[in-house]
Amino acid sequence: MKTIEIKGTFRTELGKKSSKLIRRAGSVPCVIYGKEKNIHFHAPELSFKNLVYTPAAHLVKLIIEDKEYDAVLKDMQFHPVKDNILHADFIEIHDNKSVVINIPIKVSGDSVGVIAGGKLSIKRRTLKVKGLAKDLPEALPIDITNLKIHEGLKVGDLSYDKIELLDPKKSMVLTIATSRVAQKSDEEVAAEAATEATNAATAAAAAAAAPAAEEK
Fold first, then answer.
1. Mean pLDDT of all residues in the chain?
2. What is the distance between the alpha carbons of residues 152 and 138, in angstroms, rounded to a whole number?
3. pTM
4. What pLDDT score was predicted for residue 84?
5. Residue 62 neighbours by CB distance under 10 Å
6. Structure confidence by residue, pLDDT tens digits, 145-173
7. What is the pLDDT of residues 187-211, one digit of tens each?
8. For strand 99-108 and strand 140-143, is the pairing parallel, antiparallel, or unpaired?
9. Max CA distance (Å), the chain
């Protein structure tokens, strides 16, 4: 999994008044939930763009003055109207301690159900996983090649090396739903084929008759 660097500054004062001043200066109040203590800091809002505006999951290296912390993003709060970042929460990670993070799924393969006219319906774009930071993938691959219409995959149907899926096993991840094309009966398909054959024969007859009419 890729790592994004964010540089920040330790907060010397806490509270709502201090947080407002930090936001007015174009920075985001943040906290790292550490093993021994919580660390409060702030960082420029622009430094979060590669972390927020992407579907991919990332590890984060927080460089705060002369200290470095490896972390994952736990939560982020946005302004309800302006959509700017109000606060960011991180969890410090360690080599020997598992971390919980949401990782996006990555669908591959040409489903036989989709080829037959079905429609892929994705219910969950990300899955919550637990594992050591070094074992976390950038995305969770899901092969849908063998899925037919009305078939799908639940969390319990998936498994990956060295990581644990934490979402409920019965939660649906994706399905191949019935589309209007797939709903056609055999009789409808046969009727359409017969109509197309009749139209083709009529067109061929008209084309053959055209030269004879010109000779007259």
1. 85
2. 23
3. 0.70
4. 86
5. 21
6. 999 999 999 999 999 999 999 999 999 99
7. 554 555 566 666 666 665 555 555 5
8. parallel
9. 102
* Mode of pairing for the β-strands spanning 85-92 and 67-78: antiparallel
Task: List CB contacts of 187: < 8 A, sequence separation 6 or more.
Answer: none
**Residue 182 tokens, joined:** 């797939």
Show the domains of the chain with their CATH numbers.
Answer: 3-93 (2.40.240.10), 101-177 (2.170.120.20)
Q: Which helix (H) or strand (E) holds 16?
A: helix 16-24
Determine the average pLDDT of the residues in 68-75.
90
Angle among Cα 169, 94, 162 to the nearest 5 degrees reads 35
Q: How many CB atoms lie within 10 A of CB 184?
A: 14
To the nearest 10°, report the CA torsion of 20, 25, 31, 37.
-90
CA 141-131-56 angle, to 5 degrees, is 45
DSSP-derived secondary structure for 146-213: T--TT-EEEGGG--BTTBEE-S-TT-EEEEEE--TTTT--HHHHHHHHHHHHHHHHHHHHHHHHHHHH
The pLDDT of residue 132? 92
Which amino acid, 80? P
Angstrom distance (rounded) from CA 28 to CA 90 = 13
In order of 173, 191, 201, 209, 216, the CA distances from 205 in angstroms are: 53, 21, 6, 6, 18
Terminus-to-terminus CA distance in the chain, angstroms? 79
